[in-house]
Amino acid sequence: MSxxxxxxxxxxxxxxxxxxxxxxxxxxPDAVMAFxxxxxxxxxGREAIAAAYAAQPPDDTIEIHGVRSDGSRDVITFxxxxxxxxxxxxxxxxxxxxxxxxxxx
Length: 105
Known about the structure:
With 105 residues, the chain is α+β, with helices and mostly antiparallel strands.
């Protein structure tokens, strides 16, 4: 399973169980999560990302439609389980996710 697929699986498990611990543990302590589209974030640091998910937990999972990888960067096209599509860009550093940028189509 690719690193992108593992990340998405962690996200989907967190959404369905409400337990974000494993997902958050895979983030760099200084990770940044930014959204393109909705007026949210950016969230800087694992703790800020945890607080964002606690305050507004996602209620739909994502299905990967495609992945382009370039070393430590993955660009994932996806569909939300409740409809709509988007792109998730991940950048890894030190074996952890350091940046997540989520764009909605």
